[in-house]
Amino acid sequence: xxxxxxxxxxxxxxxxxxxxxxxxxxxxxxxxxxxxxxxxxxxxxxxxxxxxxxxxxxxxxxxxxxxxxxxxxxxxxxxxxxxxxxxxxxxxxxxxxxxxxxxxxxxxxxxxxxxxxxxxxxxxxxxxxxxxxx
Length: 134
Prior knowledge:
This protein is α+β, with helices and mostly antiparallel strands.
C-alpha cells in the first residue's frame, strides 16, 4: 500500500457546536470541507485532518453501528504539549470551550504529565507532555 494521506472521520450530534468548540481552542478549519453536515479541522504541525460528520450522515458509510461514547471509547487521540505549563493552560482552555476534563493534569510516571478530556460529543483526547520530547 502506498498511502498518501490519512485522516479521521468522527460522528457528532451538532456540527455548529463542534465547530465552535474546536475554533475556540484555536484549531485551523479545513474550510473547503465544511457544510451543514460536516466540519473539518487541521491538527498539529503535519496538518492531520479530522472530519466531524453529523451522525446520520456518517452512519451509512460505516456499514455498522457507531460507538456509544457514553458506554465506551472509540479511540483516543494524543495532543503533544511542549511543557507542563502548556498542558495546564490547555486544560483551562478546554473547560472554557465546553469540553470535559476526564482526568485532571497530573504526573503519571517519571517525566510524564498530562490529562484526558472529551469534546462535547464524547471524543477523547490525551494531552501529553514527556520530558525530552520535541
